[in-house]
C-alpha cells in the first residue's frame, strides 16, 4: 500500500532581507509515494499573518534542495530545468496560501527532495522582488513506484437471491487525475463510487458493485480493474471467485415434522376411541355374567 505521508511545519531560512522569519510559516508533506508515468500532487500551504498578500505580488517556485537555481517549477518556464518543463504547475492561488505542486508524467529520477520558495514583489507590476523566503528545512521527497498497488476487495458471502456487494478500493496520490475503476460484470447503474482524502496527500477511491447472485454465478470470477492516469496505460486488478450459498430454507424439516405430528395425533385419537369402546363393552359383559 501507499505509505502514509507526514506533515511538517517548516522553519524558514531568510535569503534577503533579514526581517521576522518567524512571521512566515509553511506546512509541507515531507514524503510521498509517486507512481512512475502517472502524476502526484504535493500538498503545501503557507501564511504571512501580518498582512494580506495579493497573488499578483507573489512569485512562487519549487527548486531542488541544494540549489535554488535548479527550478522544477516557475511561472517563466525558460528558467525551469528542461526535464521538468510542461510537467509541473501550482494548484490554487498563492494569495490564499496554496502552494501545492502537481507533477505529471513522473520519471524514475523525480525523487527530489524539492523545496518551496516564495518571492514578494514591491508592486503588482514590479519584476524586482522585495523579500525572498525559502522553506528548506523539510522538503518533499518522492518514493518512486515502478508498479501500481493492486486494489483491495472486501465482501461478505454471496447468498442466492439476495443483494450482494463487492467493494474495490485503491490508494493514490494524484487527486487532480484520479484513477478509474471498472468491473468485469454489471452496468453503470450497478456501481456507486466515492473519493476521499485519508490524510493529507493520501487519497482513496472506492467502487461498490451491487447485484443479486443466482445459482449459475457460483464458481464465476468477478474482476476489478484500476486505470491510473498517465502518459501510458497503467493498470492493476484483483479478482474474486463467487461461491454462492443457497437461501436458508427449513421446509425440508418443517413439512416432515408436521406430517409426523399429524399422523401421531390421528393414531392417538383412534387408539383412544378404541380403548374407550372396548372398555364399555367389557363393563357390559361383566354386569351380565356377574363376574
What does this entry look like structurally?
This protein is rod-shaped. The chain folds into 3 domains: 7-145, Sandwich (Immunoglobulin-like), CATH 2.60.40.10; 152-241, Sandwich (Immunoglobulin-like); 251-291. It has 291 residues and is mostly beta strands. Mean pLDDT is 81; it is low at 4-21. Strands 2, 4, 7, 8, 11 and 12 form a 6-stranded mixed beta sheet that branches. The chain is built from 1 helix and 19 strands. It is 13% helix and 42% strand. The longest helix has 39 residues, at 251-289. Keywords: Membrane, Transmembrane, Transmembrane helix. The chain crosses the membrane at residues 250-275. This is Ig-like domain-containing protein.
Average pLDDT metric: 81
Structural class: mainly beta
Number of E-type strands: 19
Tell me the helix content: 10-25%
Order of helices and strands: EEEEEEEEEEEEEEEEEEEH
Distance separating the two termini? 99 Å
Supply Rg.
Answer: 37 Å
- The CATH superfamily label of the largest domain reads Immunoglobulins
Contiguous low-pLDDT stretches (5 residues minimum) are 4-21
Largest sheet entry? 6 strands, mixed
Overall body shape: rod-shaped
The fraction of residues in strands falls at 35-45%
CATH architecture of the largest domain: Sandwich
List the total number of helices: 1
Count of domains: 3
CATH topology of the largest domain: Immunoglobulin-like
* The top level CATH class name of the largest domain: Mainly Beta
Amino acid at each position: 500500500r501507499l505509505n502514509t505521508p507526514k506533515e511538517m511545519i517548516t522553519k524558514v531560512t531568510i535569503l534577503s532581507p533579514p526581517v521576522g522569519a518567524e512571521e512566515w510559516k509553511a506546512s509541507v508533506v515531507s514524503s510521498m509515494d509517486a507512481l512512475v508515468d502517472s502524476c502526484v500532487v504535493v500538498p503545501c500551504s503557507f501564511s504571512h499573518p501580518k498582512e494580506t498578500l495579493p497573488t499578483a505580488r507573489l512569485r512562487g517556485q519549487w527548486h531542488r534542495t541544494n540549489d535554488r537555481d535548479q527550478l522544477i517549477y516557475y511561472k517563466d518556464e525558460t528558467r525551469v530545468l528542461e526535464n521538468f518543463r510542461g510537467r509541473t504547475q501550482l494548484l490554487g492561488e498563492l494569495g490564499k496560501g496554496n502552494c501545492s505542486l502537481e507533477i505529471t508524467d513522473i520519471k524514475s529520477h523525480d525523487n527530489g527532495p524539492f523545496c518551496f520558495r516564495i518571492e514578494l514583489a514591491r508592486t503588482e507590476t514590479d519584476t524586482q522582488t522585495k523579500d525572498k523566503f525559502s522553506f528548506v528545512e523539510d522538503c518533499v521527497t518522492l518514493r518512486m513506484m515502478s508498479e501500481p498497488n493492486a486494489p483491495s476487495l472486501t465482501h461478505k458471502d454471496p447468498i442466492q437471491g439476495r443483494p450482494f456487494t463487492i467493494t474495490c478500493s485503491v490508494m493514490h496520490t494524484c487527486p487532480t487525475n484520479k484513477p478509474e475503476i471498472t468491473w468485469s460484470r454489471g452496468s453503470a447503474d450497478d456501481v456507486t463510487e466515492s473519493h476521499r482524502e485519508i490524510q493529507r496527500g493520501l487519497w482513496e477511491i472506492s467502487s461498490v458493485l451491487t447485484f443479486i447472485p443466482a445459482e449459475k454465478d457460483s464458481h464465476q470470477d468477478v474482476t476489478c480493474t484500476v486505470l491510473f492516469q498517465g502518459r501510458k496505460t497503467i493498470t492493476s486488478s484483483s479478482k474474486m471467485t463467487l461461491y454462492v450459498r443457497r437461501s436458508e430454507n427449513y421446509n425440508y424439516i418443517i413439512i416432515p415434522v408436521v406430517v409426523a405430528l399429524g399422523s401421531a395425533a390421528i393414531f392417538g385419537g383412534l387408539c383412544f376411541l378404541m380403548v374407550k369402546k372396548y372398555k364399555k363393552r367389557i363393563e357390559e359383559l361383566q354386569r351380565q355374567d356377574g363376574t
